[in-house]
Amino acid sequence: MKKIITMPMILASFIVFSQEKIITKSAAITLEASVPSFQPVVGTNSSVTFVLNPVTGEVASLALMKGFQFEMALMEEHFNENYMETDKYPKAVFRGQIEGFDIRSLTEDYKDYTIKGKLEVHGKSKDISADAKITRSGSRVTFISDFEVNASDFNIPIPALIKYKLDNKVKIQIIAVLK
Questions:
Q1: How many C-beta neighbours within 10 Å does residue 68 have?
Q2: DSSP structure string for the chain
Q3: Widest CA span of the chain, in angstroms?
Q4: CB 130, CB 146: distance < 8 Å
Q5: What average pLDDT does this structure show over 11-37?
Q6: Between 154 and 159, whose confidence is greater?
Q7: Cα→Cα distances 8→3, 15, 17, 96, 168, Å
Q8: Record keywords: Cytoplasm included (predicted)?
Q9: If we measure between CA atoms, which residue out of 160, 122, 101 comes closest to residue 31?
Q10: Residue 128 Rama label (left phi>0; alpha psi -120 to 50; beta)
Q11: 145 C-beta neighbours (distance < 10 Å), count
Q12: Fewer Cβ in 10 A, N or C end of the chain?
């Protein structure tokens, strides 16, 4: 009799704890390292995992570097082989905390937040502070953040030959729709 009662209780506790986090595997990250007067250098990865703990405001994101797609195949090849060295450093990871986050205060209007955390790219880790806009409509939470990082902070090489075509300052946008 104890086994009959215990098993459903254990399963129910797993369900409660697993619902604590909201996850999507289709968040999008766009990065841009364009320099005016030259061809735009823009890559997008639409298969990014993004996790939000609605109780604590903790966020985490994982992007496989080979998932970034560029307008030109040659740009994508250079990105993977020469700059990001994706065979050696296959992923980018962000772990952080949304300051003052309270999911109950979210509405259909975007609310501004600050996120602080660590970004790990190309074998290096750096503290990041970024602004984010977050909204909630029913059970759907939408998260948008724009920030910049320097390629040099992550030891990402930009050869002198093309330094005038590729900006060291990389603009990054993350859009995640969580259900």
A1: 24
A2: -HHHHHHHHHHHHHHHHHTTSEEEEEEEEEEE---TTS---EEEEEEEEEEE-TTT-EEEEEEEGGG-EESSHHHHHHIIIIIS-TTTS-EEEEEEEETT--GGG--SS-EEEEEEEEEEETTEEEEEEEEEEEEEETTEEEEEEEEEEEGGGGT----GGGTTTS-SEEEEEEEEEE-
A3: 76
A4: yes
A5: 78
A6: 154
A7: 9, 11, 14, 34, 55
A8: no
A9: 122
A10: beta
A11: 24
A12: N
Name the pLDDT band for 4 (thresholds 50, 70, 90).
low
Taken as a whole, the chain contains a residue count of: 179
Q: Give me the percent of the chain exceeding a pLDDT of 90.
A: 79
Residue 109 in tokens? 């209007």
User: Residues 143, 52: contact at Cβ < 8 Å?
Assistant: yes
Number of other residues whose CB lies within 10 A of the CB of residue 156: 22
Residue in the block written with tokens 């030891």? 155
Q: Which two tokens stand for residue 121?
A: 């790219």
Which residue from 159, 18, 6 is spatially nearest to 83, judged by alpha carbons? 159
Single-letter code of the amino acid located at 150: N
C-alpha–C-alpha distance, residues 140 and 51, integer Å = 13
